[in-house]
Structures are given as structure tokens and as C-alpha cells.
């Protein structure tokens, strides 16, 4: 559950609900409601919480997005893909092949930035799809 993940990450960073609420400019009672799942938050609030907790929105909402856990690093995923074929993995989509070729030459910091951007784009896509379905 999203609220449980927020609470766990907040506690790992040694933050109180009140401190996190202050960081994202909401009342402590609102923060409590977010963590307990009794109040829905906007994507903007989710993004603010993720920034305050030094993670991505996908890291917080992976269960709601039906994604596997976020413990596997980007480099591990790339290495796994590379093991399929030594120099060039076989992707069904040519764009995936191009993405792989471009990523393999980047340093770790650049790769992390790219994956954070991709996660945010996925979150936005899922979020707006859910909003459209509610209408």
C-alpha cells in the first residue's frame, strides 16, 4: 500500500510525520491520512513526498502500479539483458535496442538520471490513464 511505503521510507530517514508534512507543505493530520490511506493524494503531492524521501514516485507506488519491487538496480537489469547475447541483446522493438545501445555507454550517474526520468514518465502515464478511466 502506498501509505505503508511512505511510512517505511520516512522512518528509515528518521523523519516524523510532522517533519515530512512540513517538507511538503501539508498539515500533519493530512500526512497521517495519506499514510493511513484515508485521504487520496494528487500526483503533485506524491511527487513532493518522493522528493522529500529521496526516491522516485515509482519507488513509492510500485504496488499500486502493479510493478515488481524496486530492489533490482538499473545496472542489474541491463546486465541481465546483456547476458542474453554478449554484445547486443535481442529486443522485439527496435527502439528498445536503440535505448540499450545508448545507455550502455553512459556512466552510472547518467544512467540513474535516465531511469529516474523513465520512471517518472511511466508514473505519469499510469496516473493519467487512471484519471481518464474515472471520468
TrEMBL record:
GO cellular component, one term: cytosol
Sorted UniProt keywords: DNA-binding
Residues covered by the HTH cro/C1-type domain: 6-60
SMART domains attached to this UniProt entry: HTH_XRE
Pfam families named in the record: HTH_3 (PF01381)
Gene3D superfamilies attached to this UniProt entry: lambda repressor-like DNA-binding domains
Record InterPro entries: Cro/C1-type_HTH, Lambda_DNA-bd_dom_sf, TransReg_Diox_bact_type
Coiled coil stretches, renumbered: none
Listed GO MF terms: DNA binding; DNA-binding transcription factor activity
Protein name from the UniProt record: HTH cro/C1-type domain-containing protein
